[in-house]
Amino acid sequence: YNRYFSLWSYQRIYTVTQLMVAIASFLDVILVNRWNLYLGIPDQFFVLGDEIIGTVVSRLNTMPLFVLAASICPPGIEATLFAFNMGISNFGNTLGSYMGLGLLD
After folding, report:
1. What pTM value is reported for the model?
2. Which of 9, 20, 96, 98 could staple 57 via S-S, CB 3.0–4.6 A?
3. What is the pLDDT of residue 91?
4. CA angle 10-66-82, nearest 5°?
5. pLDDT at position 99, please?
6. Is the distance from CB of 21 to CB of 58 less than 8 angstroms?
7. How far apart are CA 23 and CA 20, in angstroms?
8. Residue 11's pLDDT band (boundaries 50, 70, 90)?
9. How far is it, in rounded angstroms, from Cα 6 to Cα 36?
C-alpha cells in the first residue's frame, strides 16, 4: 500500500479497487459457465486464483479506511485500532457466510 497507493487520492483508490472487485466477481460467472475450461485453465487452479484475487482486492479496498481511521485515533494505539477493525471485518465475513448458508439451507 505504501509503495503504490500512498500518492493516490482516496477517491481514486476506491474507484480502482471497486472496479477490481467487479472484475473479480465476474470470475465466478466464468467458473459457473465453465469458460475457464475453454481457456485451458483447470477448475482447481481457477478457483485458487479467484480466491487469492478476491481476498487481495478486498483488503486493498478497505486499506484507505484503516489509514484514515489510524490518522484520527490517539497516538500509540494505531495497531490496536487496526486489530479491532480487522477483527470486526473478519467476524462480519464469517457471519455473512453462515447467514448465507442458513438462507440456502
Report:
1. 0.63
2. 20
3. 94
4. 165
5. 92
6. yes
7. 5
8. confident
9. 35
Condensed to tens digits (0 to 9), the pLDDT of residues 36-86 reads 888 888 887 777 777 788 788 888 888 888 888 888 888 888 889 888 988
If phi > 0 it is left, if psi is from -120 to 50 it is alpha, else beta; for residue 34 that is: left
Cell of 82: 487496526
What percentage of the chain's residues is helix, strand, coil (to nearest 5)?
80, 0, 20
**Average pLDDT of 94-101?**
89
**Which amino acid is located at 65 in the chain?**
L
Quote the CA–CA distance of 8 and 28 in Å, as a whole number.
Answer: 29
For residue 44, which phi and psi values (nearest 5 degrees)? -60, -45
Q: Would residue 75 be called left, alpha or beta, if left means φ above 0 and alpha means ψ between -120 and 50 degrees?
A: beta
Q: Are 59 and 90 in contact (CB under 8 A)?
A: no
Beta strands in the chain (DSSP E): none
Taking alpha carbons only, the member of 49, 64, 45, 55 closest to residue 21 is 55
